[in-house]
Design goal:
The complex is a heterodimer of chains A (139) and B (121). Chain A has 139 residues and is of the alpha+beta class. Chain A contains four helices and five strands, in the order βααββααββ. A five-stranded antiparallel beta sheet of chain A has the order 1-2-3-5-4, with helices on one face. Chain A is globular and about 40 Å long. The radius of gyration of chain B is 13 Å and the shape is globular. A five-stranded mixed beta sheet of chain B has the order 1-2-3-4-5, with helices on both faces. Chain B has a single domain (7-120), classed as STAS domain (Transcription Regulator spoIIAA, 2-Layer Sandwich). In chain B, 43% of the residues lie in helices and 24% in strands. Classes of the chains: A alpha+beta (139), B alpha/beta (121). Chains A and B meet through α1, α2, α3 and α4 of A and α2 and α3 of B.
Chain lengths: 139, 121
Amino acid sequence: MIELRLPSRLGYERVAMDAAASLASRMGFETDRVAALKTAVSEAVTNAIEHGNQHNEAMKVVVLLTVRGDELIVSVTDQGHKAIDAAYVNRVPQISEAMKRDDKGGWGIWLIQELMDEVEFTTAPSGGNQVRMVIHLER
Amino acid sequence: MLEDELKVSTRVIGNIAVIDLVGDVTTFAEAKINAAYQEMSQNGAQQILLNFRQNDYINSAGIAILIGIVTEVTRNDQKLAFSGLSPHFQKIFRMVGLSQYAKIYQDEQEALTDLQNAATA
């Protein structure tokens, strides 16, 4: 298991993204699957920095990368200033709706769910938000 | 330090305004992309090509910025296209629905050829 403890500052999501990509490449994932993983990890860590930890640099985002057989499990946990809005989970955003709003965001959680094989949003024992993502190696 | 800061430059080829984006398209890119679009629009651009570099990092905040450009282009009755996206981001742009509003080309040359042909047809 690889554990990363990242400060809650935008830009550090790239560290998690690159570590996950490196591990997935070594496991034999195809380029397109590695790219999907990078986007999912980046979105999960960015959510944790922006929403869970509210950009408080003293608060950490913990990323765990676990190889189990033919799958890579990525868990992203924040320190939970603000819970993930349940309305965002399982919601399918529409671009036509986004174009009518001032805030055109809200795509991150949906992208994670679309790109990963398994996704679970839970509350960590510590009280923070936890996103657990699994990607399977297809042989 | 960790950001590959976005470099935005503009040029005009025929009747096509090209906005080159080199670097990360994240929340930090908003002002630069919007400024380039506004500059080209004020100069009368009707066809705008957003030309990416293959290995760019584009996150959901960047996608939101591009939805903002699509919104403006639609409002101003302009035509928008994308080129130079990696296969992964071509897929993401289709998933999000950006391709409903802007055609996606493999590279700049393909885009310029098609847009110029369409304009003269």
